[in-house]
Write a structure and sequence with these properties.
Elements lengths: L12 E5 L16 H15 L3 E5 L17 H11 L3 E4 L13 E4 L13 H8 L4 E4 L10 H9 L2 E4 L1 H14 L6 E5 L8 H10 L2 E4 L1 H10 L14 H9 L8 E5 L9 E4 L8 E5 L1 H13 L2 E5 L12 H12 L3 E4 L2 H10 L7 E2 L4 H7 L5 H10 L2
Parallel strand pairs: 1-2, 1-5, 2-4, 3-4, 5-6, 7-8, 7-12, 12-13, 13-14
Antiparallel strand pairs: 9-10, 9-11
Bound molecules: adenosine monophosphate.
């Protein structure tokens, strides 16, 4: 991909696709400005070169083609203006043309208010592309969607490149998938194995060790013939689990933490995996398992982490996920973590500084790790080959 850093932006109309899809409370107030903060260095880089800066983003899921106040980017424009220390003008009907001066920042209203955004409509993409001299894709979290503002516009813009945020994310994921320092260890937790089958299959081919956790591990325990009581598991995926176990890379837990109810008040009981009773459900890994997994983490040179290994939302069942997160943060390995729950866990334990790279992309991160092509990356690569 062509990098924004290698392009002369002076006096040019530079349109940057951001990810300003921020969380809002019931009154429409921004509850976390992390995504806006993350965009600042790219915007400042363009401003330093006296570019005319035009920003694009989606927010939420409005009915396409319809303006709806609660999905307006007005609060984002205000927050951004505050953080940048300069005015940020919100432009409502921007497809008709945008007036922007050198050194000015304008934010276009929610891209999803335009008909054709989600369908990657060619005409809409062309209308957007003529508004700029350089298109910069800097929203990795949207890179798995072929939409007009993430993909179509990159086909038609005079110049299309990747911004520094996007570059850094792709480089981190490439470092894990293409040429990792070995041993490469992946830790995949979460509720459902069925939602992570492609991920597990791809990772099983590339990693040296693959730790599974959460509901996913329950299906592996069942496949290995252990009793799992009334734990969450998916019988339809037993054969996949058997196949992956046969590869010899997936260590099984030694002990687990069980309860007789799925609740924050449930009494946690540590059990060897052979001793889980019919009325019990497995809600976390046990201390012996954590110690064994910590050794694997300590030995790894590259670590990829997605998904909690227990019901970390309940304090009684947080220890496995907390221990794994701490071990990764303390390890010398190059570590990459991604996914909504994983990021929530890292934030909960205050361990972000110990992780080498934290991916902002939920769906985009998973699809990349599944080995799928992300349309926004593919189009930038093909433009670079012209
Ligand atoms: P996912 O969205 O698939 O990554 O799943 C994350 C969710 O899995 C979290 O909300 C966890 O509480 C849940 N989870 C983790 N371990 C278990 C378990 N053993 N049983 C049920 N749910 C679990």
């Amino acid at each position: 991909m062509l990098s924004m850093k290698s392009i002369d932006l002076r006096h040019k109309r530079v349109m940057i696709r951001e990810d300003f899809n921020v969380p809002l409370d019931n009154e429409g107030k921004i509850t976390s400005d992390t995504r806006i903060q993350a965009a600042l260095p790219t915007i400042r880089l363009a401003l330093e070169q006296h570019a005319k800066v035009i920003l694009l983003s989606h927010l939420g899921r409005p009915v396409e083609g319809q303006y709806e106040e609660r999905y307006s980017l007005l609060s984002v424009a205000e927050k951004l203006s505050q953080l940048l220390g300069r005015p940020v003008r919100l432009v409502k009907n921007w497809l008709q043309g945008i007036e922007v001066e050198e050194g000015e920042v304008v934010l276009c209203e929610n891209v999803r208010f335009n008909f054709g955004e989600n369908a990657d409509d060619d005409l809409l993409s062309q209308k957007m592309a003529v508004l700029c001299d350089v298109f910069v894709m800097d929203a990795f979290a949207t890179a798995h969607r072929a939409q007009a503002s993430t993909h179509g516009i990159a086909k038609y813009a005079a110049v299309a490149c990747a911004g520094p945020l996007m570059m850094a994310e792709v480089e981190a994921l490439t470092a894990v998938m293409d040429n990792p320092a070995r041993p490469l260890l992946a830790i995949v937790g979460g509720a459902k194995i069925s939602s992570k089958l492609a991920l597990l299959e791809n990772l099983s081919r590339r990693t040296d060790q693959l730790i599974v956790g959460g509901g996913i591990a329950n299906t592996f325990l069942a496949a290995a013939g252990y009793p799992i009581g009334c734990s969450l598991y998916e019988p339809d995926s037993l054969s996949t689990a058997e196949k992956l176990l046969a590869m010899g890379k997936v260590p099984l837990p030694i002990d687990v933490v069980t309860a007789t109810a799925f609740s924050a008040e449930a009494l946690p009981v540590i059990k060897a995996i052979a001793d889980v009773a019919p009325d019990e459900m497995i809600l976390d890994i046990g201390p012996k398992t954590l110690a064994a997994y910590t050794t694997l983490i300590d030995d790894a040179k590259t670590i990829l982490w997605n998904g909690p290994v227990g019901v970390f939302e309940f304090p009684a069942f947080v220890h496995g996920t907390a221990g794994i997160a701490r071990a990764i943060a303390l390890s010398q390995a190059y570590s990459v973590a991604g996914g909504g729950d994983t990021l929530a866990a890292i934030e909960l334990f205050g361990l972000a500084s110990g992780i080498s790279s934290i991916s902002t992309g939920g769906g985009a991160f998973l699809e990349y790790m599944e080995g799928k092509e992300l349309p926004a990356i593919t189009i930038l690569n093909s433009r670079n080959e012209e």
